[in-house]
Write a structure and sequence with these properties.
Length: about 240
């Protein structure tokens, strides 16, 4: 049976998506290091694909802020610029603080926060330890604050900022102590919000984000250095 037109149209999109996800994972896992250069042909050979889906995936990664294109010398993983990430963290903090202040004192807030209270204010024996799952849950917690605030433009900007921070934010949950701290801190933020103390809730939330930022900065620097050391050892071994 021959593929339908719809199936034919889906194939390159699915392949481009697969290449996009693989390259993004390689960047997240420091298999592709900040500053590494490569060509479309190199990726096409590695992925056993034509240049069209590779180019589509790379331009999507460029829009997401993970790679840069140099028209005379190919592509490059975006060099790590902590000032850039700190600027994103500042925007994220402003948005989340504004959202929490809007929510504090709102009628029916406990009902609106019911799902978050169930997830984060549970007994220690009910807490999860899967770092990948916790990274997603943490993101969803902060997304929910913006969604519940009712300003969809703020929520959209916040989601875009968090997408660009994801490359380093997910590292926050590679340490057991940070998983425990996140449960405790999210629970405390929710309880402060329910108490109606907007300033204290906003202040603690800001501190919570700042601790996470400093933690992932330290882990990221360590991971990059370790990856560079492995790369140099492999080169010398060859």
């Amino acid at each position: 049976m021959y593929p339908t037109d719809t199936e034919e149209k889906k194939r390159p999109l699915n392949l481009a998506e697969r290449i996009y996800q693989q390259l993004k994972n390689d960047i997240f896992d420091f298999q592709l290091l900040p500053g590494d250069r490569f060509s479309e042909n190199e990726i096409a050979r590695r992925m056993q694909a034509s240049r069209t889906p590779v180019r589509e995936a790379l331009y999507r990664l460029e829009r997401d802020g993970f790679v840069q294109v140099h028209f005379r010398s190919g592509w490059q993983v975006r060099p790590f610029d902590f000032r850039y990430f700190e600027d994103l963290y500042d925007v994220r903090t402003l948005l989340e603080v504004a959202a929490v202040k809007r929510l504090c004192g709102r009628a029916g807030l406990k009902e609106q926060l019911a799902g978050l209270l169930t997830l984060w204010c549970c007994h220690e024996g009910q807490r999860l330890n899967d770092s990948s799952l916790l990274a997603e849950m943490d993101e969803d917690f902060h997304f929910a604050l913006l969604e519940l605030s009712g300003n969809q433009e703020m929520a959209a900007i916040h989601r875009m900022v968090c997408e660009r921070l994801r490359i380093i934010r997910r590292l926050d949950f590679t340490q057991q102590g940070r998983i425990t701290a996140t449960y405790d801190e999210h629970s405390h933020i929710l309880n402060l919000m329910l108490s109606g103390n907007a300033e204290e809730a906003a202040g603690f939330l800001s501190q919570h984000i700042d601790v996470s930022k400093n933690t992932v900065r330290h882990i990221t620097l360590h991971r990059i250095q370790a990856a560079k050391s492995r790369y140099n050892i492999n080169i010398r071994a060859d």
